[in-house]
Structures are given as structure tokens and as C-alpha cells.
Amino acid sequence: MLAQIYSVLLQAPAGGGSIQLIFLVGMIAVMYFFMIRPQAKRQKEQKQFATTIDVGERVVTSAGIHGTIKRTNDDDTLLLEVHHGSFITIERSAVSMEMTNAFRKKAGIATASADTKK
Fold this sequence. Notes:
Layout: H1 2-10, H2 17-52, E1 58-60, E2 66-72, E3 77-83, E4 86-91, H3 97-107, H4 112-117
């Protein structure tokens, strides 16, 4: 008798596999639309921002260094003046869009993204 009850309890329930599959697909879709897609959008905006910065603009690097772009080079580097007469060479991709826009907003300088939204 105990063996029969035990064997009945160990049997997998009929059906239910399709519900689990639907749930799994739903979770993957949620992760895609709430995590992966927005990150890809931010990366695309950052890349576009990095290609549009030009000489004379005040920027902030991802390391927090403030400076003015003095020259752009063909190898995707920028000459950044951090203090009068002090220059450093940085990668174009090191300029942070979020930090630069926050700096510009604080300083009252119009941002490129604000201009495109108008």
C-alpha cells in the first residue's frame, strides 16, 4: 500500500509543460525589452555622441576629468586641455555622454540631445 502511494506521488503531472515553456519565453521577452534593448539604445546614443563632439567643446570623461577639446586626431583620439597649458590625449570613446550633459546642464550650456528633441 505504501509503495503504491509513493509511486503515485513520484509520477510527473500530466500536461503543465507547455505552461512552463510559455512562462520561460515570457521571462526571456521581459528581460530583452527591459534590460537588453535599453542598454543597446544607450550604447548607440553614446557612440553617436562621441562622433559628434568637436573642437572647443567642454566635456567630462568617464574618469571624471573635465576639459576642453583642443584637437581631434585621425586615430579617434582627442587632445584635451584640462588646465591652461596642460594637455592630455584621450580616446574619443572615453568622453561620457551622461556626465558631460549633466555638467552642461549645471553650467547652463545647451546639450546636443536637448537640441534634437525640440
